[in-house]
Amino acid sequence: MTRTAHWIHAWLLLLPSLVLLALFTHYPAVATLWQSFFSTAKGSRPSVFVGLDNYEQLVEDPIFWQALSNNFWYAFWTIPISIALAILMAVWVNRKIAGRGFLRLAYFTPTILPMIAVANIWLFFYTPEYGLLAKLLEPFGAGSQNWLGSKATALPAVMVVAIWKEAGFFMIFYLAALQSMSPHLAEAAAIEGASRWYFFRRVTFPLLMPTTLFVLINAVINAFRLVDHIVVMTRGGPDNATSLLLYYVYEIGFRFWDTAYAAALTVVLLVILGVAAIAQFFFLGRKVHYQ
Amino acid sequence: MSASLVYAPRGASHALETAGAWLLGLVWVLPLVYAFWTAFHPAEFSTRFALDAPLTLDNFVRAWEAAPFARYFVNTAILVTMVLAAQLVLVTLAAYAFARFEFPGRNVLFALVLVQLMIMPDVLIVENYRTMAFLGIRDTILAIGLPYMASAFGIFLLRQTFKTVPRELDEAARVEGCTPLQVLFKVYVPLARPTYLAYALVSVSYHWNNFLWPLIITNSVESRPVTVGLQVFSATDQGLDWSIITAATLLSTAPLLIAFLLFQRQFVQSFMRAGIR
Question: What distance in Å separates the CA atoms of residue A160 and residue A123, rounded to the nearest whole number?
């Protein structure tokens, strides 16, 4: 086979995937940026070039800042807590423990359920007066607390759902990593007289680092990508207390149909994901090759 | 099991940790158990826990009758099959090119593919909606699946697997007179079967569960997948009680949940395999 024929074969193999990727990933990413410099067409008024107007609107939009800060705090709390719980779960179910099969199942099941179903279940769980949480807290006089309806507790209540759904997913990566660790490490450390906590802190945890970085990147993407539960549980309320960035994009773009402003908001989202990508390239890339 | 033998907790700390693991496990299943309780009991028992509460399937029957769930299930089944079939073909071809061909622009093209790992169609909803409107396929099952058919994740995963296939097998097949495509389907594809299974399970559960994009792009019973159908059902009819909504919720997840319970090991291993790269 000649070299050119070889090249043509390769390009033909790639063609279908690249066409679809170009149409639904590269083009829309660029078009989003382009559209963010135009106004939204309304009735007889066509879309015109407005420069940075949409970004000026964005800077002055308190709801945007609220959504951004909500998203930041959402990531700030859900990611470390899910990861810590995932490690704990993995360490527990990695050894002989009574009911290991049940525990693995219990931890992992939320992962395969659709977020929308999870949100429906938790919505009822949180219902004031009637929900299970209200029933459990009734003896303490907190039965009428409206967890999703008050500004102070709505975002934390939504975070709990995200943690519940994600910890079991991250657990399996840690479980896989733990199972691939050599038992000689522990034996050697025990002979040297290292305590269990010391062994975890100085040996196990550092060896789990590539897994942690992988999970971390995934968790960051998910924190900005997944807003299904917001649609079901709070619709961003009360008073935007649970509006996350992508949810706000959805609201602006598909409930108010201001697509130009939604494009500007999406650009912010893309920048955040881009930074995560660069972080992955620098940290994760190196660690994985290291293995 | 591995490292834990030497450092297995003993005595009091063992008991304490077992208790902790169980407490967490119980907290983790509580919402689900509660959902099952509500769905299988009459409405008056949905918040009253009595051991003699009668079991019933009535909630499921009423949910099934109140919304076109049968149609939603068909839509989801079509969606998931269509997306998976397209993905398997496209991903196989592209991964083969990246794994075993030298050609100009390979690294640039691979980088362009990997962009999708970070910037998923999930966040490009505004522009993709515009594209679907332009193509005139809004409110179709095809429009839900189209942005996901080329999968960077799948290409990456399969390329890794194809790279582990010994070159000798490839060359032997070529000596026998196989064309590149025949080599792909006779040598590479059969050897990558576990990766295909892993990818298929992850893909099916992802698209079964996907919600926001289908919510935006669909508008009718004929194209809505079951997740969107469930939301439309539980959000619009205010008169419904929780027992019925919970029954509908369990109903919509039942196929996936049952498959998971039956093939637990394969699911967990697939998710692991798909993640460790």
Answer: 12
User: Which tens digits make up the pLDDT trace of B7-16?
Assistant: 776 677 778 8
Task: Please state, in angstroms and as integers, the Cα–Cα distance from residue A93 to each residue in A135, A237, B18, B215, following that order.
Answer: 31, 38, 10, 37
pTM of the model: 0.89
**Nearest residue to A58 (alpha-carbon basis) of A271, A242, A262:** A262
Q: In total, how many domains does chain A have?
A: 1
By Cβ distance, the residue of B9, B90, B215 closest to A16 is B90
A85 and chain B in contact, CB less than 8 A: yes
CATH architecture of B66-275: Orthogonal Bundle (1.10)
Quick check: B268 pLDDT over 50? Answer: yes
Using an 8 Å Cβ cutoff, are B154 and B203 in contact? yes
| Residues of chain B found within 8 Å of residue A119, distances taken between Cβ atoms | none
The verdict on residue A104 lying in a domain is yes
A257: helix, strand or coil? coil
Would you say residue A144 lies in a domain?
no
Q: Over the stretch B98-129, which tens digit does the pLDDT of each residue have?
A: 998 888 889 999 989 988 888 888 899 999 99
Rounded-to-integer distance, Cα B252 and Cα B266, Å: 22
- State the residue range of the domain holding A274: 53-115+155-290
B152: which chain A residues are within 8 Å (Cβ-Cβ)? 21
Q: Measured between beta carbons, which residues in chain A are less than 8 angstroms from residue B90?
A: 16-17, 20
Determine the residue type at A48.
Answer: V
